[in-house]
Amino acid sequence: MRVLGIDCGSEITGYGVVEQSESGDLRCVASGAIRLATREPLSARLNQVFTALRGVIEQHRPHMAAIEDVFYAVNVKSALKLGQVRGVAMLAAASCGLQVAEYAPLAIKSAVVGYGKAEKSQVQHMVARLLKLESPPEPPDVADALAIAICHLHTWATLRKHGAAGTPR
């Protein structure tokens, strides 16, 4: 199973493609950051995210995509921009025929670190450890995207093991 994890941001959107073998070993297939110029119009930035993610999907052929669920934000304007980036990311995946799973930040951190309120640095270090990377992924958005993919793979494996309806075997 190969999963594309997406960590949306209005300045940096991280992505990570993680593959899990039948034996349960995790491997990082690809990862990176889509850096958005804040001086560009929002429509151009959204198009950049859409185009870049479609390119990643076409190149690495994940079976599914996973994204962080909406979280509480104090700044309404920032929350709206983030929502627009999330929508475009979900559209990019869906337009390539991928199902998109959504996970709460607490669930992602719990799946990777074992503690839902872990710091970004802890997520980076555990992602590096789980994927046997030489160093923690940078920027943190990339580590978060890989963590989202790992969370989905863990969830999918558990559902598959218990024979949940609609889970591919």
SSE order and pairing:
Elements: E1 2-7, E2 12-20, E3 26-35, H1 42-60, E4 64-68, H2 76-95, E5 99-103, H3 105-112, H4 120-130, H5 140-161
Parallel strand pairs: 1-4, 4-5
Antiparallel strand pairs: 1-2, 2-3
Helix pairs in contact: 1-2, 3-5, 4-5
Description:
This protein is an alpha/beta fold and 169 residues long. The protein has one domain (2-161): 2-Layer Sandwich (Nucleotidyltransferase, domain 5). The protein contains 5 helices and 5 strands. The chain is globular. The model has no long low-confidence stretch (mean pLDDT 91).
Label the structural class.
alpha/beta
Helical coverage, percent range? 40-55%
Q: Give, in spatial order, the strands making up the sheet with the most strands.
A: 3-2-1-4-5
State the shape.
globular
Q: Which CATH-level-2 architecture?
A: 2-Layer Sandwich
Summarize the structure.
The protein has 169 residues and is α/β, with parallel strands linked by helices. It is built from 5 helices and 5 strands.
Keywords:
169 residues, alpha/beta, Nucleotidyltransferase, domain 5, five-stranded mixed β-sheet, 5 helices
